[in-house]
């Protein structure tokens, strides 16, 4: 399983489309761990309105920054592979499949792209 970690802070305008791009992956053995870094806009409301059992939302009680939020996501992850996704990024629907296939074919443990 892949754990997709998304740190988020005040991204109510981009987070739904960003999450949707992950949910639409052709490779679907994943969880999405969204770490809200104490957003002050409607980011958490937008996230909570997306119903998919693969989404796990962690709400921080104060702002710590993206690196801290990513680390919290890693600690909460259950996957064998960690994938980082930013709250304003969009993934091609085949991104995870291509990455997993490449890693397996080439016996790679770590990959950046």
- How many β-strands, per DSSP? 4
Helices, by number, come to 4
Name the helicity range.
25-40%
| H and E string | EHEHEHEH
| Rg, Å, rounded | 14 Å
Mean pLDDT: 97
Principal-axes shape call? globular
Q: Largest beta sheet: what is the strand line-up? A: 3-2-1-4
Task: Give the terminus-to-terminus CA distance.
Answer: 19 Å
Low-confidence stretches: none
Topology:
Blueprint: E1 2-8, H1 15-23, E2 30-36, H2 43-48, E3 55-59, H3 66-76, E4 81-84, H4 95-105
Describe it.
The protein is of the alpha/beta class. It is built from four helices and four strands; from the N terminus they run E-H-E-H-E-H-E-H. The chain has helices at residues 15-23, 43-48, 66-76, 95-105; strands at 2-8, 30-36, 55-59, 81-84. Strands 3-2-1-4 form a four-stranded parallel β-sheet. Strand 2 (30-36), helix 2 (43-48) and strand 3 (55-59) form a beta-alpha-beta unit. The longest helix is centred in the middle third of the chain and has 11 residues, at 66-76. The protein is globular. The model has no long low-confidence stretch (mean pLDDT 97).
List keywords for this structure.
single chain, 113 residues, alpha/beta, 4-stranded parallel β-sheet, 4 helices, 20% strand
């Amino acid at each position: 399983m892949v754990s997709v970690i998304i740190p988020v802070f005040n991204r109510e305008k981009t987070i739904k489309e960003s999450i949707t791009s992950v949910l639409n992956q052709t490779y679907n053995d994943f969880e999405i761990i969204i770490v809200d870094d104490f957003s002050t806009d409607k980011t958490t409301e937008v996230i909570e309105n997306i119903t998919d059992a693969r989404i796990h939302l962690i709400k921080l009680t104060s702002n710590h920054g993206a690196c801290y939020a990513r680390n919290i996501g890693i600690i909460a992850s259950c996957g064998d592979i960690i994938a980082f996704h930013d709250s304003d990024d969009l993934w091609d629907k085949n991104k995870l499949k291509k990455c997993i296939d490449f890693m397996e074919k080439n016996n790679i443990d770590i990959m950046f792209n």
